[in-house]
Amino acid sequence: MTTTCPQNIELEDPLPLFEDKSNQEVKTTTCYMCACRCGIKVTLEGKKVRYIQGNRNHPVNKGVLCAKGNAGIMKHESMAKLRSPLRRKAGTERGAGEFEVISWDEALDELTTRLEKIRATDPKKLAFFSGRDQMQALTGLWAQQFGTVNWSAHGGFCSVNMAAAGLYTLGQSFWEFGDPDWDNTKYFMLWGVAEDHSSNPMKIGLSKLKKNGAKFATVNPVCTGYQAIADEWISIRPGTDGLFAIAMSRVLLESDQFDKEFLIRYTNAPHLVIQNPGQSNDGLMWRNEQGKPQAWELESETFVDASLAGIKPALFGEWQTSEGFSVKTSFTLLTEGYLSDEYNLDKVSKETGIAAEDIERHALEMAHVAFQESIEIETEWTDWTGKKHDKFIGRPVSMHAMRGIAAHSNGFQTCRAIHILQILLGAIDCPGAHLAKPPFPRMIPPPIKPAKEMAPNTPLKTPPLGFPTSPEDLCIDKDGKPLRIDKAYSWEAPIANHGLMHMVINNAVKGDPYTIDTLIFFMANMAWNSSMNPGNTQNLLREKDENGEYKIPYLVVVDAFHSETVNFGDLILPDTTYLERFDTISILDRPISEPHVIADAIRHPIVDLDRDVRPWQEVMVDLATRLKFPAFTNDDGTAKYSGYKEFITNWEKHPGIGFLAGWRGKNGEKSIVGEPNPDQWEKYIENESFFKQNIPDSQKYYRFANKEYLEFAADTHLNFNDKPIVMELYSETLQKFRLAGQGLYDGPCPSDEEDKARLKKYFTPCPSYYKPIEVALTDENEYPFSTTTQRPMFMYHSWDSQNAWLRQIMAQNKLYMNRAKAESMAIAEGDWVWVESRTGAIKAQVKLMEGCEANTVWTWNAIGKQSGAWGLKKGANESEKGFLLNHLISELLPASSTSQREMTNSDPITGQAAWYDARVKVYRADDQTPISFPQFNTIKPIPEAPDQPSILTYKTHEPVNIVRSTRDVLTRGKKPR
Amino acid sequence: MRLGLVIDLDTCVGCHACAISCKEWNTSGTTGSLSDQNPYEKDPTGVFFNRVRSYEIGDYPHNKTVNFPMSCMQCEDAACVTVCPTGASYKRKSDGIVLIDQDKCMGCNLCAWACPYGSRELDRESGTMKKCTLCVDRIYDESLPEIDRQPSCVMTCPSSARHFGDFDDPNSNVSKLTRERNGDGLMNELGYNPTNQYLPPRLANNITIEKKKKNIVGQVKDWANELISR
């Protein structure tokens, strides 16, 4: 070889072999670093994880992976991993963190004895609430079999407003229920989404629409994350989004740019509503003898069954009936409300902070895209009437909304207002618009009623959670008192579809509506960032009665990691990490479907267990067997299933329908419906841990009225019947509750004045705006700032301050303020300030930014930790300087002028926790000591906890260096040219 | 060949996936491990080859946030190589990747001083300088499927903001993107001739609007019904 060789590459030594592939193995499974449920490929080297990457074939993430997913190794290596079952040491106080290691037999015997007694006497004395889990089909079934109504997951403090508003309006919703048609949309408006919900699919989608030249507008008080790449950031005052949505709809109405055909064909806009003030039928649908809503037929000029095909119903109008009252179309009522002076653009502008001309422009831009740039996809399809069409017409405007809308006490109505805007644009489940994800769309609402009857040793007749459509469906006793510990489905939160987990501790300690015996928390950090006012919540957990017994007598905490809540448990059941267990992301839950792909997935053990922990799924099946739940035991009391794996394979909800949709039938030849297949798990593992079935072209759009799809969905139990889904602009359900508030309802009515007032004010059958309840009850001059929180993309849903890599991106959160505003208050970058609300005060360090609405302050949620928790050492930035905004928020509303009753600080319709309603004042602290307030005691390490290393050098093999040859050094002494 | 990255500032949402994916691959890579100090206590810090910074441009409400991932630019005139006293730092002739021979590096830090992009990281555990290798231990690994022979950061990027290729090839994806989207090197004026290119944010499309206000606003009963069949 000479230096004159023309091939440069030959000047360099060949690269060495970097890793021993024979010692490596690649397995596929499903990520669980957040709730996105992406497909991952895990490279193992010996017993260690070498590399985690996205699975290109997976319908959710298509090969990409976010920061959390990539940091899975450090989750698995977390110092906070629980190692064995623990029991609070006898004679020590709850929360003191004194635990003893016990065996699983001991733990489960103790728990079984306790639960057996509760189940045989008064099943509601068990409350079982789960947090950020993804197995509500199983936990819900377990609670139903136990016979307690006191179960829910974390939706009540997360985003139930979105789910409920969608399911009561569209028959689908955002995120797990539906997504924008990223490939075809030309205008995308993102509401109240910070950096999360969802993770990779959102990022994949945004890059597609940017590439396609679509417009991307965001509505958010804070300009971070996704807002950074928006074409337009619409800075809005928190909690006023409903006004903005209604005002834009008003512009569409005023300028006659709305989709009348869509309204007539697919919504209840033409349905006639009784106008009979003061009577029990006022505001209800005017129905014929068969109970069908009626419409005014323009050609025959008669009242007709509104559900008939081929009629030409009036969209607007009022008619007298022979029954002595008049009727108006739903759409007339909606329009009258929207065109009222309350929503004139100048007023809306003042409240929202968005200029009137901008409100108008945004609406008209969307109208232009929807109606002048509509798209057509040529495909034959058949509508519900049997009529054939040769194309799908698309209105390529899409939206996505999440917590910024949900976490206000007006979130349900705001979300409904957003859906109405989508409906006016005709932009639902058509090309370029918002698309449902199977099993959605479904009946509005799904025909499942929440259980309320309980009896010893008896399963509930229906699941604990359901969808009320009238006051009769409430979970209240004959005196109107709540039957559930969280008061879900009571007059205080009638449509609380996901329960009110954030109220459980408060209610149980107060014995309001009753006391309980055992509280099980799974994967929920209720003693810290998942509760409002965590300091007080910790005190409540410690509170004792006059006999010296804890008011919540027995607290069981199930988690994989040492959270602040684990510290309060009487019994700790340690879970595994996501790489160590079997799991289903079930079609019976909210599966991983994409709009045109029906899909579900599994996890399976990738890494061997190295400690005495068990997957909670496995433990639940074990407990269900010990407690002899009918679904889990034979008549002779023996176990039906040897464990979780066998349960999943064989249990059927309906004949042929189980947790997993793929490879059903004896030989795995059937999909979605089919008898159990003993090799189903193996088929999933062979097929990269997911199942998918593509939806045929003719069924991809207009699925609420697409005959083939409706029939398919009914046949496969994705939906409950094959009837067309008629979207509800006007909600008769809400009107029934409103009538109850007025004392007019022909059925249960509340007796408490506060309940009546809330039903009358908030349960408007067409969307309306009201100021968030806490805001309305707070002096806005004294507390001039709104507050919000966001979760950073690299932490969302993972709470991963325990993660050595992710915490390097952020170990301390700050209080973010608008720069000019802060400067006007003599607050400088890095200053420590006091932030006070009506109920609490915190001290935090300020960071100034431009992208923050001037009257809003915000921070990253759940970065602040209690000292000693999550495997972090005392003095960690998270606890010493970080903070939670939660300390400023109360789970109870301030007393109103009319009532001293303690009301939940939640949406009055759904019970969704109103996180973002707190108002605060901010001022520079006299004492600039760089330590946040409040500070909590340092949590003691759990038994067997490892000592945290001061240096981490994670690797799976010795590195193979690329040696630069001496020849290369000598021949290239100067910079290469 | 002149291998490098194109980074699209129009779609980077600042999610840090690239930074963590890089860490994950490279901690068991050719210069691994990438040590972390104080991983579970106060002030955690460690070696990252790729870091994402966020900036704000303009004053509220006319502000814009830009997320800016930065790793080694694989400069054509790499000062870090010039200043290296041991010959540990070098730029490969065949593909332009700037590497550090860990056996020859004595951790003197001169290269880190010379690099205007802050792309070099001293590993306090090994006492050697480390940096982005463009995943040289992936891109030539023929045992990997061809589609996986890319830097880890590029494969993982959820918003397709990262692209890898040969800038010497005018038909490569990176050359095309740079050309079509007016890509530019960072701080070209300093004269290091960085290989990596950044694509600026695209300008928003203007959407026409049609104002056709009705005169009968508020009088719903007068609105004409149209004959539309259900």
List keywords for this structure.
heterodimer; A: 977 residues; alpha/beta; Dimethylsulfoxide Reductase, domain 2; Barwin-like endoglucanases; 7-stranded mixed beta sheet; 6-stranded mixed beta sheet; 26 helices; 23% helix; 16% strand; globular; B: 230 residues; alpha+beta; Alpha-Beta Plaits; 3-stranded mixed beta sheet; two-stranded antiparallel ribbon; 6 helices; 19% strand
How do the strands and helices of this protein lay out in sequence?
The complex is a heterodimer of chains A (977) and B (230).
Chain A: E1 24-30, E2 39-45, E3 48-54, H1 67-70, H2 72-76, E4 86-88, E5 99-101, H3 104-121, E6 126-130, H4 136-146, E7 151-152, H5 160-167, E8 178-180, E9 187-191, H6 200-211, E10 215-219, E11 232-234, H7 241-254, H8 260-266, E12 272-275, E13 294-297, E14 302-305, E15 318-320, E16 326-329, H9 330-338, H10 345-352, H11 356-372, E17 375-382, E18 388-394, E19 397-401, H12 403-406, H13 411-424, E20 434-436, H14 504-510, E21 518-522, H15 534-542, E22 554-559, E23 571-574, E24 583-585, E25 597-603, H16 616-626, H17 644-650, H18 680-686, E26 690-694, H19 707-715, H20 732-741, H21 753-762, H22 773-776, E27 785-790, H23 806-809, E28 815-818, H24 819-824, E29 832-836, E30 841-849, E31 856-860, H25 877-880, E32 919-924, E33 951-952, H26 966-971
Parallel strand pairs in A: 6-7, 6-21, 9-10, 9-19, 10-11, 21-22, 22-23, 27-31, 28-30
Antiparallel strand pairs in A: 1-2, 2-3, 4-5, 4-23, 8-20, 12-16, 13-14, 15-16, 17-18, 24-25, 25-26, 27-32, 29-30, 29-32
Helix pairs in contact in A: 4-16, 5-13, 7-10, 7-11, 7-13, 10-11, 20-21
Chain B: E1 3-8, H1 17-26, E2 36-37, E3 45-46, E4 51-57, E5 64-70, H2 79-82, E6 89-91, E7 98-100, H3 110-114, E8 121-123, E9 128-130, H4 136-139, H5 152-156, E10 162-166, H6 173-180, E11 197-199
Parallel strand pairs in B: 1-11
Antiparallel strand pairs in B: 1-10, 2-3, 4-5, 6-7, 8-9
